[in-house]
Specification:
mainly alpha, 4 helices, elongated, 0% strand
Amino acid sequence: MRPAHSTLSLLLVLSLFLWAGMVAGISFLEAPLKFTAPHITTELGVGIGRIVFQALNKVELMLSVVALLAAGLLGVPSRVWLTLLTAVLILSAQTLWLLPALDARAAALLAGSPNPPDSQHLTYVVLELSKFAALLTTGVLAFSWALRMARRRAAHAATASFAA
């Protein structure tokens, strides 16, 4: 495997699994557990959640750019692109539509005028689960593909060395 190719492959796989791990750690652990802590009011939990999810979104956007650039430079197969673009599309929907809507609801709650219940939070949870599955799938596909490419390059190098 050429050094640039191996570095980009590592960067792609690392960005995907780091992204998936952050989603799992924050969305599926930190967010629900903070409300079980003693003395944490709904208002305090929502205030903390706004800050945490804004930061997570920025890191997710950065990791998505890294993954997209690495995938593009590597020329990954279409099945990797399909799952990667699924995750990026979900992230885009969250960034441009759902997070601003949820943030407005949180701001209203913190200002003392909560909105009536709606399905936005459930939609966010479903999208997070879907994005997490897409990221894990993409990571496994990208890792498997990178291993196959490394083995092919090693076999080709061995054959070339033997012939020379």
